[in-house]
Design brief:
heterodimer, A: 290 residues, two-stranded antiparallel ribbon, 11 helices, 2 strands, 72% helix, B: 248 residues, Rossmann fold, six-stranded mixed sheet, 38% helix, 25% strand, disordered C terminus, binds adenosine-5'-triphosphate, binds magnesium ion
């Protein structure tokens, strides 16, 4: 019982992070109509950038480091768009996907060249946190939950109530009509990259705080995000959000019955099942950011 | 009407898709406070003309003037700001946005939220069902309600010229009447309207002038009532001609 409760809590924490990855990935899909394989590397680079700010000589506080990392990753995403995706704006989704795969491999290798392949951790101690009976939650984990929840709330308010947010949803729902009403799609696309990059970077930092950093951490998280996006129905932001929690919970509950080594395979497994039986997702239609 | 300058003037327009010319040597004008109707068989290029006038298709030849300005090469995204609005033949709503959000998107170019609100309230006063359903996704509306919403969205920017592509398509007779009578109301509020219609008779009855488009160019044009009575137009484009005419 304790084990189940602890797994539920761990799953919730992991899920809140995956939800950030998945909403960003689905936002890009909703407006640009391709799965950005380099999304994992935005996550990875976000974590490494924060790490760089946290360690000497800079030794910034975790929050400042995370904030700077978010800005850095927004810059990286905008650069990626300008250099690669924008020239391919009217290309087929397959071409875009392959281009993003290229960027993904490039950034993985770059990270490995710069930081080496070894596993690193953020330089703050995982001091024992609060325990509720036998269930333990560390301070870091409480912070993760809090930051993830605040980010999700921010995303919700932005998409639902601001003019810029509604324009994002409009462009992904019916781009021609949005253009008819004077919405400049390039501006909207830039905003979507900013949002997706910020979500990836925040998630990447939280993920590294919960676990650790290594140059290939992007790819497994891309797989998780992709599984969550499929669960939610591609382009459906709130579906992806729920999908993220479903992946987090199934991974952490799954290891109760499966050997630990299979944890990373669970997201793959969900992807295969979904692509075979329900490509439109569990939570509805295929199109549009909602 | 004829002695004032046209609000829209299309001269010798040619356009098409992927190098296939669909529209050629098209002449068209709309005068202030006029309802002009384009009729013609399926595939004649009616929607193509409206798309070109709104800038979704580039002009291969000829030019387009709107309110004394050459807008031939102005991109579609800039046209709403000039005072033009287009209701597409299909795909003219945001299905996953709520009705209220659809109207807000229609008024995207209005910078002040309070002004957007005020215009929306005026629309809600005219179409109370939109107000009732404002929190629902637009895809939940019926075909006719969608059409009314689409026209409402286009009116949010208070355009001088409204382009309507088959506003009555697929509607029940009652809905059709509702749409047509709203078009009259919009015209009475001082707007110029250029519309494409399959229901040629009903449309010509409320229009001032009409153009008959066939094979991408205008074959007949003139006073709407005269087109309605023209035996050739009747026979070729108004569905069946004299025999039906005698029966009705
Ligand atoms: N996106 C497109 N790409 C290529 N050809 C097109 C495209 N849209 C229309 N056409 C072609 O252009 C011609 C005119 O089409 P258009 O839609 O303008 O006709 P229409 O008069 O509006 O017909 P309808 O009454 O069916 O709406 C048709 O032959 C059509 O096949
Ligand atoms: Mg048409």
């Amino acid at each position: 019982m304790t084990l189940i409760l602890q797994s539920l809590l761990d799953g919730l924490i992991a899920g809140s992070i995956y939800a950030l990855f998945a909403t960003g990935l689905t936002l890009i899909y909703g407006t640009l109509h391709f799965i950005n394989f380099a999304h994992g590397e935005l996550i990875m680079a976000g974590a490494y950038l924060a790490y760089l700010f946290m360690i000497p000589p800079l030794s910034f506080s975790p929050f400042l480091s995370a904030g700077l990392a978010v800005l850095g990753i927004i810059g990286l995403a905008l650069l990626m768009d300008k250099a690669v995706f924008r020239p391919l704006r009217n290309a087929s989704p397959l071409l875009l996907l392959i281009a993003s795969l290229g960027i993904s491999l490039f950034l993985q290798n770059l990270a490995q060249a710069v930081w080496g392949a070894e596993i690193r951790t953020f330089p703050f101690s995982l001091e024992r946190g609060l325990s509720f009976g036998p269930v333990v939650i560390t301070r870091v984990q409480i912070t993760i939950l809090f930051v993830a929840a605040a980010t999700i709330l921010f995303l919700y308010l932005l998409l639902k109530f601001t003019r810029a947010g509604k324009a994002i949803r409009g462009v992904s729902d019916n781009p021609r009509l949005a253009e008819t009403f004077g919405v400049e799609s390039e501006k909207i696309i830039r905003n979507v990259w900013i949002l997706a990059a910020a979500l990836a970077a925040v998630g990447g930092v939280l993920y590294a705080a919960d676990t650790n950093l290594e140059p290939h951490m992007g790819i497994i998280n891309l797989v998780r995000a992709f599984a969550a996006v499929l669960l939610g129905g591609t382009g459906n932001v709130w579906g992806a959000l729920i999908g993220g929690f479903v992946i987090g919970l199934s991974e952490n509950l799954g290891v109760l019955i499966l050997p630990l080594g299979y944890k990373d395979a669970i997201a793959f497994f969900i992807i295969i099942i979904l692509l075979l039986f329900r490509p439109e997702g569990i939570l509805g239609t295929r199109w549009g950011v909602r | 009407m004829e002695n004032s300058a046209p609000i829209l003037e299309v001269t010798s327009l040619a356009t098409g898709y992927h190098r296939v010319k669909i529209v050629k040597n098209l002449q068209l004008s709309v005068f202030p406070a006029e309802i002009v109707c384009i009729i013609g068989p399926n595939g004649a290029g009616k929607s193509t003309v409206l798309r070109a006038v709104y800038g979704f298709l580039s002009c291969w030849e000829g030019n387009i003037r709107f309110k004394d300005e050459d807008i031939t090469h102005l991109p579609a995204v800039k046209r709403a700001a000039k005072g033009m609005a287009l209701v597409h033949q299909d795909g003219n709503i945001f299905p996953n946005l709520t009705i209220q959000e659809n109207l807000e998107m229609g008024g995207y170019l209005i910078p002040e939220a309070s002004e957007r609100r005020a215009r929306m309230d005026r629309l809600f006063a005219q179409l109370p069902f939109l107000h009732e359903k404002r929190k629902q996704a637009a895809r939940s509306l019926s075909g006719g309600e969608r059409q009314l919403l689409a026209i409402g969205m286009a009116l949010m920017t208070e355009p001088d010229l409204l382009l309507l592509d088959e506003p009555s398509m697929g509607l029940s007779p009652q809905m059709m009447d509702r749409v047509f009578s709203w078009i009259v109301t919009i015209h009475e509020a001082g707007k110029s309207i250029l519309m494409v219609e399959q229901n040629a008779k009903q449309a010509l009855e409320l229009a001032h002038r009409g153009y008959v488009l066939d094979l991408g160019t205008n074959r007949f044009e003139g006073d709407a009532k005269r087109l309605l009575d023209d035996p050739k137009v009747k026979r070729l484009y108004l569905g069946g001609g004299d025999i039906n005419e005698d029966l009705s």
